[in-house]
Design brief:
Layout: E1 5-12, E2 16-24, E3 30-39, E4 43-44, E5 47-48, H1 51-69, E6 75-80, E7 86-95, H2 105-116, E8 124-136, E9 139-142, E10 152-163, H3 164-176, E11 180-186, H4 187-195, H5 198-203, E12 205-210, E13 215-221, E14 224-231, H6 235-246, H7 250-259, H8 276-287, H9 305-330, E15 341-344, H10 353-361, E16 365-367, E17 374-375, H11 386-398, E18 402-403, H12 412-416, H13 422-433
Parallel strand pairs: 1-6, 3-17, 6-11, 12-15, 15-16
Antiparallel strand pairs: 1-2, 1-18, 2-3, 4-5, 7-10, 8-9, 8-10, 12-13, 13-14
Helix pairs in contact: 1-3, 4-11, 6-7, 6-9, 9-10
Length: 435
Amino acid sequence: MSKNRVITAIDLGTDKCVTLIATVDETKHLRVMGVSVVPARGMKRSVIVDLEQVLNTITESVDGAERMAGFEINSAYVSVSGAHISSRNSKGVVAVASPDQEITRLDVDRVIEAARAISLPADREIMHVIPRDFKVDSQEGIKDPVGMTGVRLESEAHIITGMSTALKNLEKCLNDLALKVDGFVFAGLASAEVTVTETEKELGVMVVDIGAGTTSLCAFVDGCLEYSGALPIGARHITQDIALGCRISIDVAEKIKLTLTEADLLPIMPLPGESKEELGRRRRKSDVLDLEKLGLPDTGEPLSKRTLAEGIMVPRLKELVDMISKRILEADLIGKIPAGIILTGGGAQTVRLADVARKVLNLPVRIGFPVKLDGLVSDIEKPLYSTSIGLIQHGFNQGGGEEARQGSMFGNLSGWFDPKGIFGKLMGIIKSVMP
């Protein structure tokens, strides 16, 4: 049997469903084999509101990725977001079990389990228990205590929880499609896996993953996860504002939002010898959005780029950034994230967002692009796919996924030449009839 593993990621959001299929070979090399992106239906603010439509969405996305990869999957890591996500930090304490007082992996597992023992409402369940650091007797800040000597072992863990009903509905959808859930992963945590450097984590940084319906937040302080949460606002709200303000359809508004860039808003400088009237005409012409060039229907009246950006989009962006600022204050992160804010997700490259974030938060801001993977990735090296690539990386780090089976595009060749395989049986027949 081949030692290849298959890791599948399903990022089901408000606006899209992304399925990635990657393989891990014997040299621990990760390669993307299948990619499928389809519009999401039946989701509202990252929560299922119509099971049947969500089933159809996941089916379409998974089928597309399977066709591209050339084999079927049985399990997947699934992203979870939404305003129901919350987090807290918890401590656990145990006595070292070994008579010679050497800390073993079993002691570490016990202390993490002790930190996990928190009281939760009946409608919530734990998604992640992430150790922050350990304390052996009076020595603090230990990252891995295995092999050290001590009597008392303490651990502080970051615990991320979600609504049980949201997770069970998501699991039901996958089970109905004969897929097993390898693990639910908070979308912000998945994005952080592939957009943040270790240096930024040590300095202190916050990842802001802006989806269509919700925004996921993850803050790292001293290299450890300090805060996780989500906001009930996303890039779709900006699209709705444009549609209402300009009296156009949602689809047209979305295309306008995606095509509007900083270059469109640069001031027009006067040319040598140009009169004020000529400059004014050129500026007015430059400010009008060319819908025909974008392949969009004429709205009947000219749309001003500057009015779109400054009058409609910026107020909503300020609202989003103000909510992020409030969370930073509530989580006591002021002064703890000098590396600033990393914007990722589908809404990260919205025009003027980075500028607004810098001014309001008074912190460094950059757009977070996911790390590069091998394989079919030319179209997915964008912030839009940070979560789905992060899910693949999370599964790789956890050693998860499923073993490549007979009948898949790899792993079956060795089976053919096995004594019990097709060619093995044929060789046996040939040998039996030869003199």
